[in-house]
Amino acid sequence: MTPRPQLQTGYYRHYKNLNYEVIDVVRHSETTEWMVLYRAQYGDFGLWVRPYDMFFEQVIVNGETVPRFAWVGPAE
Q1: Are the C-beta atoms of residues 48 and 40 closer than 8 Å to each other?
Q2: For residue 67, how many C-alpha atoms fall within 13 Å in the half-sphere facing its CB?
Q3: What whole-number distance in Å separates Cα of residue 28 and Cα of residue 75?
Q4: Distance CA 16, CA 43 (A)
Q5: Which long-range contacts (CB under 8 A, 24 or more apart) does 21-30 make?
C-alpha cells in the first residue's frame, strides 16, 4: 500500500469559487486509493470525497493553469 499522503487541513476554494473544508484523507475500501474528505461550506454542507491526485491537480481555466482547489487558511 502507498504511504499516507501529506495533507493540509482547513479551508480551500474550488476554481469555480466555491468554498470547502478539508477534513482528512481516507482510503477507498476496494482500491485502497487515497481520497480527500471534505465538506461544502454552502447549501446542505454535504460531505464529499475526491481522489487525492485529482483534488490537488491543476486545471485550465480561460487558458490559465490554476489549482483545482487552492488552500485559503486553517479551519476555525
Answers
A1: yes
A2: 11
A3: 25
A4: 15
A5: 21/75, 22/69, 23/47, 25/52
Residue 13 CA to its chain's centroid (Å): 9
Q: What is the pLDDT of residues 41-63, one digit of tens each?
A: 999 999 999 999 999 999 999 99
Q: Is the pLDDT of residue 25 over 80?
A: yes
Helices then strands (H, E): number in the chain? 1, 7
The DSSP code for 57 is -
Whether the per-residue pLDDT at 23 is higher than 80: the answer is yes
Contact (Cβ atoms closer than 8 angstroms) between residue 22 and residue 37:
yes
Cross-strand bridge partners of residue 16: none
Please state, for a pLDDT cut of 70, what percent of the chain lies above it.
Answer: 100
Cell numbers linked to 27: 482510503
> Furthest-apart CA pair in the chain: how many Å?
38
